[in-house]
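Appendix B: a complete holo record

For completeness, this appendix reproduces one full record from the ligand-bound portion of the collection. The bound molecule is magnesium ion. The inputs are the chain sequence and the ligand SMILES; the output is the full three-dimensional arrangement of the complex, encoded as structure tokens. No fields have been trimmed.
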Amino acid sequence: MSFSEQIQEIEAEIKKTAHNKSTEKHIGRLKAKISRLRREEIDRQLASGKGGAEGFAVKRSGDAVVSLIGLPSVGKSTILNRLTNAESKVGAYEFTTLDAIPGILEHRGAKIQVIDLPGIISGASKGKGRGKEVLSVARNADMELIVLDIFDGPMHLDLILEELWQVGIRINKIRPDITLKKTSRGGIAISTIHALTHMDFATMKYIMGEYKVVNANVTVRCDPTIDEFIDFLEGNRHYAKGIFIINKIDLAGNRLDYYLKKFPTDHEYLKISAEHSENLDDLKDDILDTLNLIRLYLRPQRGEADFEEPLIVPHGSTVGAVCKILHQEFVDGFRFARVWGTSSKHAGQMVGMSHILSDEDILTIVKRR
Ligand SMILES: Nc1nc2c(ncn2[C@@H]2O[C@H](COP(=O)(O)OP(=O)(O)OP(=O)(O)O)[C@@H](O)[C@H]2O)c(=O)[nH]1
Ligand SMILES: [Mg+2]
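The structure of the chain with magnesium ion bound, as generated:
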């Protein structure tokens, strides 16, 4: 049986199995099997050089990377051109863009790399229409701008999320907080912090069996679904933020509300017209807010803080993380840091590597001599 036939057969079995408490173990195991088969198939393709076609070469730059994902002709390139200094060809026909085109969006002191990509189609994750290369750029981005057009958007949304899901990209999801330590004997011990509502320990053990885990200590600090638990066991998942954009609202005229109502309500949408530059400032703000970055002003030991070029780092960054971003020598030679701003108890507070910084803090790192 071919790889896709095997998967189809298992998927059919999941579909025809009633989902309830008594079938939970069985379904968990079947889902884990599909994940394993897919991973094996990808490994095989990579090994044989098939599907390993030349990827798009985009050098990462800026404080964060955002990629434009959507079907052909929805307006991705128009958005890139409006947000950044870049020029990507715009066309009234599909597949105008054939390459990854990066540009830089400068907003609120941050430099965000925005990457325009060819449109994806159904089957992209399996390689259709250079889909693999497109999705691999998306996998390296911190955030996906999912572009939908006002008319076909509701139809395209599931397709896009499915293709992203297939290559291991999880949108607006939190990495399941689970740790697993293999042991040499004693079976599987599971400890939890909250009650699990999606599966019981027996199901978890059964699924782990599919991954040949028989002796381990597992700590679960969340309430994972079967899919989330498999994601954890598979590893190699990319958790990216996502913004859902509805473009071309100008074309709907006074029927705008009618078309907007067709979009599923489980996401929030930003409604824009790239062509008429409508709501683009909201989009820029949304990108910055969703990336959740903070600005730090670095101040040398003797001298003034640099308010012109803030260092942009993710919200929740520690002094240690900043040292790492700056240079390994700050990590190796770290003595202490001084902080002025909302994260400090008083001006110039002495702090260690684990101190968490806030937006617009001033930071001095003191190294050993
Ligand atoms: N009316 C209107 N047309 C738009 C808008 N945004 C883009 N377009 C038009 O839609 C067509 C496709 O735009 P592109 O930016 O090339 O779309 P794309 O998503 O990059 O397309 P591919 O590169 O083929 O995937 C062009 O004719 C644009 O002028 C919009 O907000 N309103
Ligand atoms: Mg394009």
